[in-house]
Amino acid sequence: MRLKDKVSVITGAGGGMGRVAALRFAAEGSRVVVADNQAAAAEETVRQVRAVGGEAVPVTVDISKEADVKAMIDMAIRKYGRLDVLYNNAGIMPEDDHSVLDTPVEVWDAVMAVNVRGVYLACKYAIPHMVERHSGSIINVSSFVALLGCSVPQDAYTASKGAVVALTRSLAVQFAPQGVRTNAILPGPVETPLLMDWLVKDEKAKQLRLARNPTGRFGKPDEVVSLALYLASDESAWTNGASLVIDGGISVNYF
Q: Residue 207 belongs to a domain with what CATH number?
Protein backbone atom coordinates (compact mmCIF):
# COMPACT_ATOMS: atom_id res chain seq x y z
CA MET A 1 0.00 0.00 0.00
CA ARG A 2 1.39 3.35 -1.07
CA LEU A 3 0.01 5.32 1.90
CA LYS A 4 0.19 2.69 4.62
CA ASP A 5 -0.10 4.22 8.12
CA LYS A 6 -0.33 7.79 6.80
CA VAL A 7 -2.98 10.25 7.96
CA SER A 8 -4.52 12.52 5.33
CA VAL A 9 -6.81 15.53 5.67
CA ILE A 10 -8.79 16.07 2.47
CA THR A 11 -10.92 19.20 2.17
CA GLY A 12 -14.00 19.25 -0.02
CA ALA A 13 -14.16 15.48 0.37
CA GLY A 14 -17.94 15.28 0.55
CA GLY A 15 -18.26 14.80 -3.20
CA GLY A 16 -16.66 15.06 -6.61
CA MET A 17 -12.90 14.77 -6.79
CA GLY A 18 -12.59 14.98 -3.01
CA ARG A 19 -14.72 11.88 -2.47
CA VAL A 20 -12.76 9.99 -5.11
CA ALA A 21 -9.56 11.04 -3.33
CA ALA A 22 -10.84 9.86 0.05
CA LEU A 23 -11.71 6.45 -1.36
CA ARG A 24 -8.43 6.07 -3.25
CA PHE A 25 -6.28 7.25 -0.33
CA ALA A 26 -8.06 4.93 2.08
CA ALA A 27 -7.66 2.01 -0.32
CA GLU A 28 -3.91 2.71 -0.30
CA GLY A 29 -3.78 2.50 3.50
CA SER A 30 -4.27 6.09 4.63
CA ARG A 31 -6.53 7.03 7.48
CA VAL A 32 -8.60 9.89 6.10
CA VAL A 33 -10.13 12.97 7.69
CA VAL A 34 -13.03 13.75 5.38
CA ALA A 35 -13.62 17.51 5.60
CA ASP A 36 -16.56 19.25 3.97
CA ASN A 37 -18.94 22.12 4.65
CA GLN A 38 -21.87 19.74 4.26
CA ALA A 39 -22.07 17.32 7.19
CA ALA A 40 -24.27 14.78 5.39
CA ALA A 41 -21.93 14.70 2.40
CA ALA A 42 -18.88 14.13 4.59
CA GLU A 43 -20.67 11.36 6.47
CA GLU A 44 -21.65 9.68 3.19
CA THR A 45 -18.04 9.68 2.01
CA VAL A 46 -16.98 8.14 5.31
CA ARG A 47 -19.70 5.52 4.96
CA GLN A 48 -18.38 4.60 1.51
CA VAL A 49 -14.80 4.42 2.77
CA ARG A 50 -15.75 2.18 5.67
CA ALA A 51 -17.91 0.00 3.43
CA VAL A 52 -14.81 -1.10 1.53
CA GLY A 53 -12.71 -1.60 4.65
CA GLY A 54 -11.04 1.80 4.91
CA GLU A 55 -10.70 4.06 7.93
CA ALA A 56 -12.09 7.59 7.90
CA VAL A 57 -13.71 10.19 10.10
CA PRO A 58 -15.94 13.12 9.04
CA VAL A 59 -15.54 16.75 10.04
CA THR A 60 -17.78 19.66 9.10
CA VAL A 61 -15.76 22.75 8.25
CA ASP A 62 -16.16 26.11 6.56
CA ILE A 63 -12.66 26.29 5.14
CA SER A 64 -12.80 30.10 5.08
CA LYS A 65 -13.21 30.34 8.87
CA GLU A 66 -10.11 30.15 11.04
CA ALA A 67 -11.79 28.52 14.04
CA ASP A 68 -13.27 25.78 11.84
CA VAL A 69 -9.95 25.03 10.17
CA LYS A 70 -8.06 24.92 13.46
CA ALA A 71 -10.69 22.53 14.83
CA MET A 72 -10.32 20.34 11.72
CA ILE A 73 -6.57 19.95 12.18
CA ASP A 74 -6.89 19.56 15.95
CA MET A 75 -9.39 16.77 15.41
CA ALA A 76 -7.04 14.96 13.04
CA ILE A 77 -4.24 15.09 15.61
CA ARG A 78 -6.53 14.11 18.47
CA LYS A 79 -7.98 11.18 16.52
CA TYR A 80 -4.87 9.83 14.83
CA GLY A 81 -1.92 11.47 16.60
CA ARG A 82 -0.20 12.71 13.45
CA LEU A 83 -0.72 14.39 10.08
CA ASP A 84 1.14 13.29 6.98
CA VAL A 85 -0.85 14.72 4.07
CA LEU A 86 -2.90 17.88 3.64
CA TYR A 87 -4.89 17.79 0.39
CA ASN A 88 -6.34 21.28 -0.18
CA ASN A 89 -9.05 20.26 -2.62
CA ALA A 90 -11.99 22.46 -1.56
CA GLY A 91 -12.89 25.25 -3.95
CA ILE A 92 -15.78 27.15 -5.46
CA MET A 93 -16.51 28.43 -8.97
CA PRO A 94 -19.72 30.53 -8.92
CA GLU A 95 -21.73 30.97 -12.11
CA ASP A 96 -21.72 34.76 -11.72
CA ASP A 97 -17.91 34.94 -11.74
CA HIS A 98 -17.10 36.58 -15.07
CA SER A 99 -14.87 39.50 -16.07
CA VAL A 100 -13.65 42.01 -13.50
CA LEU A 101 -16.07 44.39 -15.24
CA ASP A 102 -19.19 42.54 -14.14
CA THR A 103 -18.24 40.20 -11.29
CA PRO A 104 -19.93 41.42 -8.09
CA VAL A 105 -17.57 42.29 -5.24
CA GLU A 106 -19.29 39.80 -2.94
CA VAL A 107 -18.65 37.01 -5.46
CA TRP A 108 -14.99 37.99 -5.76
CA ASP A 109 -14.62 38.00 -1.97
CA ALA A 110 -16.40 34.66 -1.57
CA VAL A 111 -14.10 32.98 -4.11
CA MET A 112 -10.99 34.39 -2.47
CA ALA A 113 -12.21 33.38 0.98
CA VAL A 114 -12.59 29.72 0.03
CA ASN A 115 -9.99 29.22 -2.69
CA VAL A 116 -7.13 31.23 -1.17
CA ARG A 117 -7.84 31.92 2.50
CA GLY A 118 -8.91 28.29 2.94
CA VAL A 119 -5.56 27.03 1.66
CA TYR A 120 -3.69 29.54 3.82
CA LEU A 121 -5.58 28.56 6.96
CA ALA A 122 -5.23 24.83 6.45
CA CYS A 123 -1.50 25.21 5.87
CA LYS A 124 -1.17 27.53 8.87
CA TYR A 125 -2.47 24.88 11.23
CA ALA A 126 -1.20 21.72 9.52
CA ILE A 127 2.43 22.67 8.86
CA PRO A 128 3.56 22.93 12.51
CA HIS A 129 2.50 19.32 13.12
CA MET A 130 4.38 18.20 10.00
CA VAL A 131 7.49 20.17 10.94
CA GLU A 132 7.42 18.56 14.37
CA ARG A 133 7.79 15.14 12.73
CA HIS A 134 10.07 16.48 9.93
CA SER A 135 7.74 14.91 7.40
CA GLY A 136 4.70 15.93 5.40
CA SER A 137 3.18 16.52 1.99
CA ILE A 138 0.90 19.43 1.12
CA ILE A 139 -1.09 19.13 -2.09
CA ASN A 140 -2.80 22.29 -3.32
CA VAL A 141 -5.36 22.14 -6.09
CA SER A 142 -4.90 25.07 -8.45
CA SER A 143 -6.00 25.11 -12.11
CA PHE A 144 -4.58 25.37 -15.60
CA VAL A 145 -6.23 28.81 -15.80
CA ALA A 146 -3.52 30.02 -13.41
CA LEU A 147 -1.20 29.84 -16.43
CA LEU A 148 -3.46 30.94 -19.29
CA GLY A 149 -5.74 33.83 -20.07
CA CYS A 150 -9.28 33.05 -21.19
CA SER A 151 -11.61 34.83 -23.60
CA VAL A 152 -14.53 33.48 -21.54
CA PRO A 153 -13.22 34.74 -18.21
CA GLN A 154 -13.82 33.69 -14.64
CA ASP A 155 -11.55 36.31 -13.19
CA ALA A 156 -12.06 35.67 -9.48
CA TYR A 157 -11.49 31.94 -9.90
CA THR A 158 -8.48 32.54 -12.15
CA ALA A 159 -6.89 35.01 -9.74
CA SER A 160 -7.50 32.68 -6.81
CA LYS A 161 -5.83 29.75 -8.54
CA GLY A 162 -2.85 31.90 -9.51
CA ALA A 163 -2.50 32.82 -5.86
CA VAL A 164 -2.49 29.13 -4.91
CA VAL A 165 0.45 28.50 -7.27
CA ALA A 166 2.41 31.43 -5.83
CA LEU A 167 1.71 30.34 -2.25
CA THR A 168 2.71 26.77 -3.09
CA ARG A 169 6.12 27.92 -4.29
CA SER A 170 6.68 30.05 -1.21
CA LEU A 171 5.78 27.20 1.14
CA ALA A 172 7.97 24.79 -0.82
CA VAL A 173 11.01 26.99 -0.23
CA GLN A 174 10.22 27.74 3.41
CA PHE A 175 9.45 24.27 4.70
CA ALA A 176 11.28 21.69 2.58
CA PRO A 177 14.38 22.11 4.83
CA GLN A 178 12.09 20.99 7.66
CA GLY A 179 10.83 17.94 5.81
CA VAL A 180 7.57 19.32 4.42
CA ARG A 181 6.99 19.24 0.66
CA THR A 182 4.42 21.45 -1.06
CA ASN A 183 3.17 20.96 -4.61
CA ALA A 184 0.29 22.16 -6.77
CA ILE A 185 -1.91 20.25 -9.18
CA LEU A 186 -3.28 22.30 -12.09
CA PRO A 187 -6.17 20.36 -13.65
CA GLY A 188 -7.97 21.28 -16.82
CA PRO A 189 -11.76 20.86 -16.96
CA VAL A 190 -12.68 17.72 -15.01
CA GLU A 191 -16.03 15.93 -14.92
CA THR A 192 -17.01 16.93 -11.40
CA PRO A 193 -20.53 17.99 -10.36
CA LEU A 194 -19.21 21.54 -9.88
CA LEU A 195 -18.23 21.86 -13.54
CA MET A 196 -20.65 19.54 -15.29
CA ASP A 197 -23.77 21.01 -13.69
CA TRP A 198 -22.80 24.32 -15.25
CA LEU A 199 -21.72 22.97 -18.64
CA VAL A 200 -24.73 20.70 -19.04
CA LYS A 201 -26.86 23.84 -18.88
CA ASP A 202 -24.70 25.58 -21.50
CA GLU A 203 -23.93 23.42 -24.53
CA LYS A 204 -22.09 26.26 -26.26
CA ALA A 205 -19.70 26.64 -23.31
CA LYS A 206 -19.17 22.88 -23.23
CA GLN A 207 -18.31 22.59 -26.93
CA LEU A 208 -16.07 25.65 -26.78
CA ARG A 209 -13.96 24.00 -24.08
CA LEU A 210 -13.90 20.60 -25.72
CA ALA A 211 -12.72 22.12 -29.01
CA ARG A 212 -9.53 23.35 -27.33
CA ASN A 213 -8.57 19.97 -25.92
CA PRO A 214 -6.47 17.68 -28.14
CA THR A 215 -7.89 14.63 -26.35
CA GLY A 216 -11.44 15.71 -27.20
CA ARG A 217 -12.78 15.09 -23.69
CA PHE A 218 -12.82 16.36 -20.15
CA GLY A 219 -10.68 14.77 -17.48
CA LYS A 220 -11.91 12.17 -15.02
CA PRO A 221 -11.64 12.79 -11.27
CA ASP A 222 -9.70 9.57 -10.83
CA GLU A 223 -7.03 10.77 -13.25
CA VAL A 224 -6.33 13.86 -11.15
CA VAL A 225 -6.47 11.87 -7.91
CA SER A 226 -3.83 9.48 -9.30
CA LEU A 227 -1.44 12.43 -9.45
CA ALA A 228 -2.39 13.47 -5.92
CA LEU A 229 -1.75 9.92 -4.75
CA TYR A 230 1.77 10.13 -6.14
CA LEU A 231 2.35 13.44 -4.34
CA ALA A 232 1.00 12.02 -1.08
CA SER A 233 3.24 8.97 -1.26
CA ASP A 234 6.94 8.62 -0.54
CA GLU A 235 7.47 8.08 -4.28
CA SER A 236 7.47 11.86 -4.65
CA ALA A 237 10.08 12.49 -1.94
CA TRP A 238 12.07 14.81 -4.26
CA THR A 239 9.07 16.54 -5.83
CA ASN A 240 8.74 19.95 -4.22
CA GLY A 241 7.44 23.30 -5.45
CA ALA A 242 6.10 21.76 -8.65
CA SER A 243 3.11 23.04 -10.60
CA LEU A 244 1.91 19.85 -12.26
CA VAL A 245 -0.46 20.47 -15.17
CA ILE A 246 -2.93 17.71 -16.01
CA ASP A 247 -5.26 19.02 -18.71
CA GLY A 248 -5.20 16.70 -21.74
CA GLY A 249 -3.01 19.21 -23.59
CA ILE A 250 -5.17 22.34 -23.51
CA SER A 251 -2.32 24.51 -22.30
CA VAL A 252 -0.02 23.51 -25.19
CA ASN A 253 -2.62 23.96 -27.93
CA TYR A 254 -2.04 27.06 -30.04
CA PHE A 255 -4.82 26.41 -32.59
A: 3.40.50.720
